[in-house]
């Protein structure tokens, strides 16, 4: 009896380690392969593609030679950087994933029943992840805020009318886009293979690593399979048409235009013309002329969107006038001459702030201080005549501009996001 009990105990102890090792253990492996811009064929000279493919091929060969590794799941991802159209990037990500899957299939069976394909297209989430890790990204917080919004919205699908790439090229004058195009976009032109194994201990077979198998050369696909035309960054264009509401209230119709140049600079020009009279009571209200303004836009709002926020500038104006309200009248320049014969001249510096009020409307408040000079005449109306009284020369220093302008924003993407615009 004692010998029988000892034998049972020894048998139990010898089986116990086996039962512990029979438990499955999940093992995961993955490889990321990079592609040239707009291409879907494998190029071993790009980055570390040769080493990465050799390692994963060796892993597949070893796993199938050793029965203790059981393949459970396969995920193939294909992605692309944001430049290019949505359909093109979708097709490109599909071709890249299929190329990687087809190449690695020669080293071990990759069953369709275990395989899932994921075609990312424009990889906005990947771009956000890489941008967050880059401390040198220009306008970093502003750019990250934009990318977070795009990554969230694009989860439900990206539409052509969303124009995320166009907006990105115009963000902060295009500086973040140009930096990411050079430094980050190449990391997004990739495909990735994920493998999940179930590792089970097998006491009857000792794993023997298989020798490294030199990858077979691939046939280069015809270029027609992946039509690609590089899309250069769109050149930003911002324009505004405006009217000074204070001039309008004074019955002097006016209109102005402003063009955004680059790096916070803009140039604008305006024209006013009011030529009202009522001879019976000698009421004259006349003014016309034009001005040119060069502005520098400053501050956070100006960096987020051109023609918005704080601005300083210099301006010049040429004008003539004839004001009389039943008493003494004042006429600028020489009577009967051309605009330049009759002109007074104004020049100065200004400060202002443009406030969004609707999707394509701003209110621009500005005040200018400078010099106004030129000849003018004083006269008095008598019966049907205007009797000259004096000719004087004006030399005035002080406020020479006051503006509350309604601004209509023109240009693709030239919209306000928080005032009646898209959120």
CATH superfamily of the largest domain: OmpA-like domain
The strand count comes to 13
Fraction of residues in helices?
25-40%
What's the mean pLDDT score?
Answer: 78
Q: What's the shape?
A: rod-shaped
CATH C-level class of the largest domain is: Alpha Beta
Taking pLDDT < 50 over at least 5 consecutive residues as the criterion, the unreliable ranges are 8-23, 210-214, 218-231
Output the helix-strand order.
HEHEHEHHHHHEEHEEEHEEEEE
Tell me the structural class: alpha+beta
Per the CATH scheme, the topology name of the largest domain is 60s Ribosomal Protein L30, Chain: A
Description:
With 423 residues, the chain is of the alpha+beta class. It has 2 domains: 24-202 and 220-225, OmpA-like domain (60s Ribosomal Protein L30, Chain: A, 2-Layer Sandwich); 239-410, Beta Barrel (Porin), CATH 2.40.160. Helices cover 26% and strands 39% of the residues. The protein has 10 helices and 13 strands. Strands 5, 6, 7, 8, 9, 10, 11, 12 and 13 form a 9-stranded antiparallel sheet that branches. The chain has a 4-stranded mixed sheet with strand order 1-4-2-3. A hairpin with a 2-residue loop joins strand 11 (344-358) and strand 12 (361-382). The chain is rod-shaped, with a radius of gyration of 37 Å. It starts with a helix and ends in a 13-residue tail after the last strand. Residues 8-23, 210-214 and 218-231 have low confidence and may be disordered.
